[in-house]
Amino acid sequence: MIKKVIDFLKEVKIELTKVSWSSRHELIGSTTVVIVLTSLITAFIFIIDSALAKILSIIFKS
C-alpha cells in the first residue's frame, strides 16, 4: 500500500514538471480580467433585476 502511494506521488511530481505554468504577469492580467468582467456582469444583473422589480410592482399595483 505504501509503495503504491509513493509511486503515485512520484508520478504526480513528474507530471507537474510537464505543466506549462503561467508567468506572474499573465496571472495578474487574467485575474484582473476575471474580476472586471464579474463586476460588470454583477452590475448588469443588478440593474436588470431592479428594473424588472420596479416594472412588476407598477403592474401589480394597478
Question: Can you describe what's shown?
Answer:
It is a single chain. By secondary structure, the protein is mainly α. It has helices spanning 2-18, 24-61. The chain has a domain at 22-62. The chain is built from two helices and no strands.
**Rg value:** 25 Å
- From the spread of the alpha carbons, the general shape counts as elongated
Low-confidence stretches: none
Strand content: under 5%
Coarse structural class: mainly alpha
Compressed to H and E, one letter per element, the order equals: HH
Largest sheet: none
Instruction: Report the total helices.
Output: 2
Q: Mean of the pLDDT scores?
A: 95
Please estimate the helix content.
Answer: over 70%
Give me the secondary-structure topology.
Elements: H1 2-18, H2 24-61
Structural key phrases:
62 residues, mainly alpha
Short description:
By secondary structure, the chain is mostly helical.
